[in-house]
Specification:
By secondary structure, the protein is of the alpha/beta class. It has helices at residues 22-33, 45-55, 72-86, 110-138, 163-182, 200-208, 210-218, 232-239; strands at 13-16, 37-42, 62-66, 91-94, 142-147, 187-194, 250-253. Helix content is 43%, strand content 14%. A seven-stranded parallel β-sheet has the order 3-2-1-4-5-6-7, sandwiched between helices.
């Protein structure tokens, strides 16, 4: 076996939530390139169709699964349906999430706060419970990669609303706690904390909020935003045998933003 063999994912099945666009799609493509069968979950059929088209002609094994994560009950049902449909899942990437509104904390309604928590934290917990729980019940090893954010550690500049920061910080600690519990079962749980990546969503944001993006860029030691495809290799590493002895860890990928 060569060092490169340790990064192969042949014979594995990965589920990527929010995998039809943005960082989720890039993670799905990278994991597929490493040899795994990939299931991408998304709420919009049009975005799933577009994502599937981007895989065409590349000899990748990929399936689209239309799922509604709008509420905890819907998310719970979606994860169970996915297991019923596809069977064994070896790698779960809890990528689904988002900031949503930017309402200042002192003006945020309880309803908006709870919606942000459900989207960014509760769906992560449900994925871990259902998919990770299936790994444990079957006596199989597995990998869970939770996508948090650099905002788990620093408040975002120029953007109000702190439910996102609170939820992403909770994802980090949930990752650590679950890793401790599940290590004896061979289920590794780690987190990735992206910084500013120029996804389509952030490109749109930059058009309407250029000052915010410029403020963020000015604080990045590498003096640029991340390219979406740059997150894929890190996800492949954490999903692969190369990371067998890593669990409960948090990996920052932010161009150095949180160094200052």
């Amino acid at each position: 076996m060569t060092i490169f063999d340790r990064f192969k994912l042949d014979g594995k099945t990965a589920l990527v939530t929010g995998g039809s666009r943005g960082l989720g799609l890039e993670i799905a493509k990278a994991i597929s390139d490493a040899g795994a069968k990939v299931i991408i979950c998304g709420r919009s059929q049009s975005s799933l169709d577009e994502a599937m088209a981007s895989f065409a002609g590349k000899e990748r094994k990929v399936s689209a699964f239309k799922a509604d994560f709008a509420s905890p009950a819907a998310a719970e049902s979606a994860f169970r349906q996915c297991l019923d449909t596809f069977g064994t899942v070896d790698i779960l990437v809890n990528n689904l999430g988002g900031r949503g509104g930017a309402t200042p904390l002192h003006e945020q309604s309880l309803e908006d706060w709870q919606a942000a928590m459900d989207l960014n934290l509760t769906t992560c917990f449900l994925g871990m419970r259902e998919i990770g729980g299936a790994m444990i019940k079957a006596g199989r090893s597995g990998r869970i990669i939770n996508i948090s954010s650099m905002n788990a550690f620093v408040a975002n500049r120029g953007i109000g609303g702190r439910s996102y920061e609170a939820a992403k910080a909770a994802v980090v600690q949930l990752t650590r706690a679950a890793a401790a519990d599940w290590a004896p079962h061979g289920v590794n749980v780690n987190a990735i904390c992206p910084g500013l990546f120029m996804t389509d969503a952030n490109k749109s944001w930059s058009e309407s909020n250029p000052d915010v993006i410029e403020t963020l860029l000015s604080a990045i030691p590498m003096e640029r935003a991340g390219r979406p495809e740059e997150i894929g290799p890190l996800a492949v590493f954490l999903a692969s045998p190369a990371a067998n002895y890593i669990t409960g860890s948090t990996f920052m990928i932010d161009g150095g933003y949180t160094l200052w």
